[in-house]
Write a structure and sequence with these properties.
- By secondary structure, the protein is mostly helical.
- It is built from ten helices and no strands.
Amino acid sequence: MATAPAQVHLQTVQQTPTTKARDPFWLGGAASCAAALVSHPFDLAKVRLQTTQGASSHGMIRTMINVARNEGILALYNGLSASLLRQGTYSTVRFGTYDYLKEKFGPKDGSRIPVSTMMLCGVLAGCVGGGFGNPADVVNIRMVNDGKLPKEQQRHYKHAFDGLYRIVKEEGPAQLMRGLGPNMNRAILMTSSQLVSYDGFKRQLLATPWFKDNLATHFASSLLAGLVATTVCAPLDVLKTRIMNSSGSNTSSTQMFFHIVKTEGPMALFKGWLPAFLRLGPHTIVTFIVLEQLKVIVHQRKQ
């Protein structure tokens, strides 16, 4: 009879490590919205470079200077409301779904999740997130590129919701799904490369004696993840941007791909890589650093 309490206590200790409360679904979206405030001017420069046909002598910095000079300094934040709406839909869903699927398909004994399982979770989460975020992405790309168009072609959306309303009213609801194919493919590549590589790099760094679970590790892991994601997603990002920026045509992603390669060369598919990285790098770093801090706050409040 004296050993019974000890046995109960031992069972409790063994079960505790495998019991982990799920993080709130919205954490990734909140962190991504915070990152958008930092990265939006770079996103604007990236979109404008990607929608420039033929060789461009303007780099990212020159593009941003020209925007500020010709349209005003606040023009660097044109389309910010659409960017925040996009992160609030696309990133919330992909981060939340990714974490949910990792918990659902991952080992139940507390062991490491295989990379193949994380990749599958990233693919599924990216597919769902890309679909949810497509309407806001269409508005975002049009708003950030509006100042580059001739005045008679500018749309002058007041904010993201005005853009959604006018697109539905003037062009039909189907236009909100423009570029859905390349956008979902990009979201799949982005989620499976960015989130999975962050988890992988963080795991590898923590396995060394030089890194702890702290800000330095989060920074290094997110920087490396940003490099991987930018390179993997560059071609589809160009296709998505070109298709979403157009209106009235039914050009498919395949047709756009061959048109770009034929008229501008294969390297045009990587047009805007540097501004894409300078946008995605800080965005990824801020996202994961904020996300890690939000997780700490949430876990502390649950205790």
